[in-house]
Every structure is written in structure tokens, then in C-alpha cells.
Amino acid sequence: MARIFITGSSDGLGSIVAQRLVANGHSVVLHARNAQRAEDANASCPGAEAVVTGDLSSISETKGIADQANKLGTFDCVIHNAGLYRGPFRKTSDGIPALAAVNTLAPFLLTALMTRPKRLIFLSSGMHQSGSASLDDILWIKRGQDQWSENEAYCASKLHNVMFAKAFARHWPDVKSNALDPGWVATKMGGSSAPGGIEAAVESYVMLAEGEDAEAKKSGRYFKPGKREDTPKIAADDQGKQERLLQICAEFASIEIP
User: Fold this and answer.
1) Sequence spans of domains, the chain
2) Secondary structure (DSSP) of 128-161
3) Which three-class secondary structure state does DSSP give residue 219?
4) Is 217 considered catalytic here?
5) What is the CATH number of domain 3-253?
6) How far apart are the two ends of the chain, measured CA to CA in Å?
7) Which residue in 63, 85, 91, 158 is the catalytic one?
8) For residue 186, what pLDDT is reported?
9) Closest Cα partner for 80 from 96, 51, 56, 63?
């Protein structure tokens, strides 16, 4: 049995994957943004071990999530599932757009601050292929709301998640760190007209979370639905850019690069 922590698991794919992992006999800790969402998470997955609460758009609350999770003990796998898909700038208390905070900064912070697991899964998207490889102003501090582009921000954040997976695979050779594109599926985020199959996406989540299949024993890779490995944007393999991305996030959040 594995212990697995899943961010953004009060609904959508996060909740579906949690239910499947519980059914497979694993101990799953859920995450929800607030108390109401925590109730929703428990209702959707009553067999979960616990629910951690906190808003990933806030640096202080994200640090609190890491602290809550660490108090529960070591996890075999952490799935960075939470994410925002486009939307307005929505400036956070830390002065950056919520999308950049949740999609880019939060996965780094949790990985840096939580007790190191055996496996890491960073949620990406096929749209990362359109993401800018430039690391200038990834948190939109210089450009601000006037120059905000929800599509540009989203695509870049999904590229950052592939880069995180590859960077931590290098830094921590004892950890299997991979990126996953769950595909475009019919959830609240994906919309009812999404063409992808949920089951194929869940298969990939579960394979990487359980870590038993030969494919799941790889590290620094990029997977798609149906437990298939795929090739990410070439820029994701640039180790210099990976290190710069870690540095930007660490400096902004005032923590050390793990």
C-alpha cells in the first residue's frame, strides 16, 4: 500500500484519481482550497485518510499546506494536480497572478518544503508545446495586468511543470519525477465537449502514482493518457533553464533550492 497526496482533489480528475487509488487499497490524502471544498472532497472520496486545506495562490498558505502534509508523515507519491486554466489576472496578496502562483510557484514550493517522497508527478498539458521558453518575468511582475495574456501564461506554466519534473529527476536520483499530460477530458476545467477519455487519463495517473509498472520506474519523462510516454518541447530539456526556473521560484518565495 502506498501513501499518496493529491493537490486539487476536491473535484475533477483529482477526485476521480483519488477514488481509484483508494479502491486499489492505497492511503490517500486529499487537498482542498478551503473548508467548504474540504467537505466536498470528503463527500466525493469518503475512504480518504485526511484532507489538507489551503489556498495554493498564497505563498504563506502553500507553506502551511506543506507543513500540514509533513505532520501526517512521509508520502510515497505527491501528485501536483491542482491548476488554473486561463482566466483574468486575479492579483494575489503576493502581487502575482493567481494562475502563475497555482500552476508554477505552488508545485515548486510544495516539492521544496515537503518531506521527499519516492515519486513526484507534475501535471502538464499538450499546450506546453506552445509555451514560451523565455524565463524573463514568468511571474508577470514586470508586465502586470495591462499586458496579461491568459493563454500565454497557461501554456508557459505547463512548460514549467515539465521542467520541474526533469530538474528534480536530476537533483534527486532516488526519486522518480515525471510530468503528465492528462489530455483534454470532460471535467469542469475541460468542459463537456472535451474529446479525451477520462479512463485513459486515470490509467496514467495511477500507473505513475503506484510506481509498479516498468514505465513508472523511469524518471524525468513526459507521459500522456493510456500510460504512454511522449516527447515534450525540446526547451524542457535545457538544464540551464531548469536551474534558472528553480532559482526564480526560490528567490521569490524566500526559500532555499532543495
Assistant:
1) 3-253
2) GGGS----TTTT-TTTTGGG--HHHHHHHHHHHH
3) coil
4) no
5) 3.40.50.720
6) 27
7) 158
8) 44
9) 56
